[in-house]
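Known limitations

Files may contain more than one protein. Parsers should not assume a single record per file. Below, a two-record file is shown to illustrate correct handling: read the sequence, read the token line, then continue until end of file.
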Amino acid sequence: MIKTSNRSDITPFYAIEIFEEGQVYKRKNGLVKNLALGEPSANLPNELLENLKNKILKEKFSYTESLGISSLRKKICDHYKLNYKINISIENVAVTAGASAGIFMSLLCSFDKGNSIAISRPGYPAYKNIVKALDMKVYYIDTSKEDNFQLTVDLVKSLPANINGLIVSSPSNPCGTIINNHDMKEIIEVCKSKKIKVISDEIYHKVEYQKEKLTTAFKIDNEVLVINSFSKYFLMTGYRLGWILGDKDFIDKIRNIAMNFYLSPSSISQYVAEHVFNYYDYFDNVVLSYLDNRNYLINGLKKLGLTDFVIPKGAFYLYVDISKLKKNSYYLCKKMVQDIGVTLAPGIDFDNNNGKNYVRLSYACHKKEIADSINLIKEWI
């Protein structure tokens, strides 16, 4: 057997395991209801897909610049000017092969072996696994339902002196909760005073339901690193494309890593991404459908007696306490998909302490899929 490194000993993404179980159920039974993954069911606008088809037939897609094509980086700058009223240069932008690669490279560029990185719990599982794989130390900040499972200024103030970095996520995964702009500014100021480098994961920006729209952390302080993605608001999950905002010196370092890591982001994906900025109205209407789905799912869960959750103000997830049904969410999710073909994400993905009491449900699918899932679960329990 090939000997593997200690740093490669990371936990799987259990939501993917459940999803794969769902594919087994689908092969046997022909249908599965997927509420496990953060996968929008809506596709890109037909006009854009037709343009892409014609482009593929007429032209060869080749390597691009390691930081992404200049015209796409310029469009990302325009996106920030339009939506956040901030002027940034393409020198501040790196297009990446997905937001996950952006997180990986940002941590690699910013910190050294043995550094301590603070992340909130519950939180996105890739954070802790990437930190561990880079031989850094994870420091968990346990959040509470009373604080909407989100970071607070006081929690950040209480961080010990040995913390080198903090990953902030708003709207968050798995809870869809937000840090308002006033508190985000205070959190960044506290971190600056404590010499803590901040990485702001903003991949669910613009998938928001409150009146006051979130600003980017880069507008508050341009020494903050921002991670964003074309996957969620722009519906480009399978295209694997994201971006980083940082100062010029940092982006130059990212360039060197990217060209050795994956040469360049996908040229096909970049072509599509250049054009999605023409369709804000289309994507905003998709977000409105998520809000409708959220309310429909909440009402459905209440009818099942599941009422212990925080109402999300962004993203497209509900993080639900299921302890009255079963004491281990992983086994509940596994049994559910095997019995009725409904996939949910077990909370142990997001919280290795209390996640056994929770599941995450995605409502980025069609409303009918939610309705069918609720009916199946009702009969099953």
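...continuing to the second record:
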Amino acid sequence: MYLDSNSGAPLSPRAVEALLSFSTDPLIPNPSSIHSHGQRAKRWMANSREQVALSLGSNDPERVLFTSSGTEANQLAIFSELEARITRGEKPHWITTSVEHESVRQMAEWAVERGVKVSFLPVDSKGLVDPAELEAMFKPETALLSLIWVNNETGVIQNLQDLAARARSRGVSLHVDGAQAWGKLPIAVNDLGCHWFCVSGHKIGAPAGIGAVWSARGTRVSPLIRGAQEKGRRGGTENLLGVKTLGAAASALDPIAWATRVEGLRDRLENAICDRIPGTRIQGKGAPRVANTTNLRFDGVVGEGLVLALDLAGYSISAGAACSSGATDPSHVLLAMGASKEEASSAIRVSLADEMPWDVLAGFIDALDAAVSRARLARRLQE
């Protein structure tokens, strides 16, 4: 049973339908070609661009730029905001948070090497940014604020409207990592006041390998990949298959209906686990969270061991962000929330794709209880 939707959601039925359309007509023409097949591909691109824009609450499809992933989208937004200033000889200041996705954290290293001053906003024990802390960090040279709206590990939702307003009042550009918010929260990019909004296809039921970035009017894209495609904003022949399925998946999104189906199930799951297994903690409890995500910590247990034990029992979960898989360090998100290294290493994440029968989750609770009990017994025997 798959309980790791935040790593990659199951394919949307509409995305599957779009994929199957290529089985009856396997031609994937180049949208840059001027012949009739190329023009048909260009129309598909335009339709998908409109579908993605509408899902983000925008009536201007030309503000949507297709990328290979949410990672590329995030890095393109940051590069575009900072590189031009660096080239002009400025030393801009960039504010981001201590709980960002790895794609943003990697850009911090690049920025420091280029002479950018980078500040990391702390979060409280619930994973929330204090707006007063943000106010204290602003400098005259602050150029960019990067925020992850919904945390990929805990599901915690930042108060984006408040933080965006503070950035706007200072004339600071706002970049939002919206990958985990897309499809889970109602989105209206113009009302948010952001300059960049980045999303990833495989978080909403499109295949991996496609993402998008929405940019506000007046922003300028500095390409990471040079070429004529995407109006000179991103080079390389467009991933038509990915673009078409992304648009199809975006057109099916209904975050309010989805949350109504899923939130009660997630809450029931959390309550049942806490009642059944002593020493369970819910990371981010008390903060606003998206409906499908729970991050659970178990005293005296190593999270990765639980992931392996539950996999053998037939349940797929994670011990953190899939983009950091293979890392031996504890979750930087949980450390930022005040957990010790041992506590941060004892957590797992369960993320539901949609509603499912309760007896399936009841079986998961049985398997989790058994795995935690075995792990705690093994630890006691070693002490």
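Parsers that stop after the first record will miss the second one. For reference, the second record is described as follows. The chain has two domains: 13-251, 255-382.
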